Amino acid sequence: MSDKIVMYFDCVSPWSYVALAVVRRYKKVWNVELELIPMSLSYIMKFANNKPPITIPNKGMLMMSELGRVPRMYGVRISPPKSFPFDTMLLQQFLTLLKEKFPEDIEEVAQQFFNHIWRDGNRLATADEISAFAATIYPKEKLEQLAGFAEKDVRIRLAKQGQALAEDEGVFGSPWFVVTRADGESISAFGSDRFEHIAAFLHKPYLGTFANGETPKL
């Protein structure tokens, strides 16, 4: 058994976009297995009795200020969509179905979706928007097998997953990490700023947000 990091995410979360960039860097440095699992933050919030930071004025103001420092702090470009926040339910349904049918592709496709939203400032909310963008990054023959992503049964699976994660696993936001060492011990971590904790648990070196020892300069 090797060390493993599972990242639960919803593309509506800018900090999940940041976290994905960082965890992919550490995936190579730490030589850990990485698994991405789409979830619906709407259902997580519902079953965890939580609220998005953007809906709380003081939190929302601070978050937007912190997002402005992301490029220098984390080395990723960020340009929030003008329509933020928007409903990502159908997008998460698409990613859920993709994860089920083509799990080997989820990491790269999720990265492309995150880039389209948070780097390039585009909304992906409707079935047409999602399908149109997916057609530019994913093979047609695979997309044909994902045509049912908007169906009710996929949403029901996301609802059941959200309830189980919130009520049984304590999940309350995105990104959410479950980190398991080779000895079988596990911890959970929330947010894009918990990699120092993850490093300590895995007995691996923490090398900053760039995973190379470089110090961010704000």
From TrEMBL:
GO terms for molecular function: glutathione peroxidase activity; glutathione transferase activity. GO terms for biological process: glutathione metabolic process. It catalyses: RX + glutathione = an S-substituted glutathione + a halide anion + H(+). It comes from the Eukaryota. Gene3D superfamilies: Glutaredoxin. Residues 5-201 form the DSBA-like thioredoxin domain. The keyword Ubl conjugation does not apply. The keyword ATP-binding does not apply. GO terms for cellular component: mitochondrion; peroxisome. The active site is at 13 (nucleophile). PANTHER family: GLUTATHIONE S-TRANSFERASE KAPPA, GLUTATHIONE S-TRANSFERASE KAPPA 1. Belongs to the GST superfamily. Kappa family. This is Glutathione S-transferase kappa.
